[in-house]
Design a protein that fits this description.
- The protein is α/β, with parallel strands linked by helices.
- It folds into 2 domains: about 280 residues, Response regulator (Rossmann fold, 3-Layer(aba) Sandwich); about 180 residues, no CATH class.
- About 30% of the residues lie in helices and about 25% in strands.
- The strands form 5 sheets. An 8-stranded mixed sheet has the order 14-15-18-19-13-20-12-21. Strands 3-4-1-6-7-8 form a 6-stranded mixed sheet, sandwiched between helices.
- The chain is globular, with a radius of gyration of 23 Å.
- The two termini are about 20 Å apart.
């Protein structure tokens, strides 16, 4: 068999003030030529690594043809030339590959461009124009994908992460490859995918797969796979910062027959919608969290979750909202935060370690972001690379560009050119800030950080902070999002599923 493997992956935030152009993708991810794909992904723990290993396990004689690999950290709406560059390269590969049996995509599922709200569906449309309807297409996605009807109608298999915090990148790639191979071989007639649309969006910080109703739902799906009722399931909580005209959360189920696939997809979708009131986040004020961190008996470190400025959710990471509140205090807990500010980094590198100077930090990308102006002492300077603790990266290092640690009294600020690895303690440790040694640590992430931080955190406090990835979904400044779904409309509904591709 001849199988094409390719990657086009970013989560878009429509509310972010900047576009993700090709330079952003190169600086905050990678743009790989086909000949670079195997070396970059093999053994990396990524979804693509899982696809490669599963193909070689099940079809050792198969010929893998690699397409391009485009990935970027979450950011603002992608410039259209990014998608056009990717698809042009992919089409060239497809046309040069001859007869193809399968195509495997590693997508995020919530990519928006300046011209297409549903970019992955448009990519699949362009690919189908080249390869036709008989080539079997399988897709791996993030749990926060926007799986529209058009997306589902153009893929034969869709498999999403089943963990949040996301730790099953490679396994998701394996699932997608395994099911796609099944569909493309002798079991084609016994591999049916059903899709259920759910009219709701909820805060990404309001649930996880470790505990609570969402975890219970994931476990229910796993039991159905284990007892042979279904072959696979994916439960999608659509990421809530995608401003589109026809939004939906989704359940996808793969089973051996259409009746089972539809029944079980409808069941999971109904359970998800019925649990909607449980998916809320209680947010504390910044001042309340600082007061708590100052208490002698509070469990340290206190993790102040600044999810609204999370780069993982497409925010710029340039808010100094917490720092500004800390610097207003006469008594400040020993604190650490991180911020993206290339101008401040350049100034620190020019002045050198040991210098005290006035710094103006914050708001370099989002002029709405809170900023600080204060005298700071330059503790250290760095090239900005570190070895990640979490999985899912290509290569063995992550770069945040040049970095500096600047101290403002009891506050250490890790200033970098761009933030990456938000939920990884190594983002601090690699630059001389051990989170365990602080009273208060700002983490700019939604839930991803819990996988690595739960063993070292004293107390985790979701906090009401300003930013493009705010957890206050109902108050977000959407322009196109219809207010006809939950949380704007809260009513009982019956959720049904349908086969979108037999």
């Amino acid at each position: 068999m001849k199988i094409v493997c390719t990657e086009f992956r970013q989560e878009s935030n429509s509310l972010s003030p900047f576009q993700s152009d090709l330079a952003f993708w190169r600086n905050n991810g990678w743009v790989l030529r086909p000949e670079e794909m195997r070396g970059a992904h093999e053994g990396s723990g990524s979804a693509m690594a899982g696809m490669i290993s599963e193909i070689e396990r099940l079809l050792p004689d198969a010929h893998i043809v690699f397409g391009p690999g485009f990935y970027a950290q979450s950011g603002g709406t992608a410039a259209q030339h990014v998608m056009d560059s990717y698809t042009e390269q992919l089409v060239d590969v497809l046309r040069g590959a001859g007869d193809i049996d399968m195509i495997l995509f590693s997508f995020h599922g919530a990519l928006q461009t300046t011209e297409f709200d549903d970019a992955e569906a448009e990519v699949l449309r362009r690919v189908r124009e080249v390869v036709g309807e008989d080539v079997v297409i399988g897709v791996s996605t993030d749990l926060h994908a926007y799986v529209s009807r058009a997306f589902a109608e153009r893929a034969d298999i869709i498999s999403g992460y089943q963990t949040y915090p996301h730790v099953d990148f490679e396994e998701t790639g394996r699932r997608a490859a395994r099911l796609t191979i099944r569909k493309a071989t002798d079991s084609a007639a016994d591999t049916v995918m059903a899709w259920a649309s759910i009219p709701m969006i909820v805060p990404a910080s309001a649930y996880n797969s470790l505990e609570g109703p969402f975890a219970d739902l994931i476990h229910h799906g796993h039991r159905m796979v284990a007892d042979g009722t279904i072959l696979d399931f994916s439960i999608y909580q659509m990421q809530p910062w995608l401003d589109v005209a026809d939004p939906n959360s989704t359940v996808v189920v793969v089973a051996k027959d259409a009746e089972t696939a539809c029944a079980r997809a409808g069941e999971l979708a109904q359970l998800l919608y019925d649990a909607r009131h449980a998916f809320t986040t209680e947010l504390s004020s910044i001042d309340a969290v600082i007061d708590f961190a100052l208490q002698a008996d509070s469990a340290k470190p206190v993790i102040l979750v600044d999810s609204a400025d999370s780069n993982n959710a497409g925010a710029p990471g340039d808010s100094m909202a917490v720092a500004a509140k800390l610097l207003d205090r006469e008594v400040m807990p020993r604190s650490a935060t991180v911020v993206s500010d290339p101008v401040a980094v350049t100034r620190a590198h020019r002045l050198g370690v040991g210098t005290t100077a006035e710094f103006h930090i914050g708001g370099q990308m989002d002029p709405r972001a809170p900023q600080i102006t204060a005298q700071g002492y330059i503790r250290s300077l760095h090239d900005g690379t570190f070895r990640p603790q979490v999985v899912g990266h290509t290569g063995d290092s992550v770069s945040v560009g040049r970095a500096a640690v600047v101290r403002f009294g009891n506050l250490d600020v890790m200033v970098c050119e761009h933030i990456a690895g938000n939920g990884d303690p190594q983002l601090y440790r690699a630059f001389g800030i051990d989170p365990a040694m602080y009273d208060l640590v700002v983490v700019k992430a939604n839930t991803s950080f819990r996988a690595a931080y739960r063993d070292i955190a004293g107390t985790i406090v979701p906090t009401d902070t300003p930013g493009a990835a705010s957890a206050n979904v109902a108050d977000l400044p959407f322009r196109r999002m219809p207010r006809s779904i939950y949380p704007w409309v809260d009513e009982e509904r019956t959720i049904c599923a349908e086969v979108v591709r037999g």
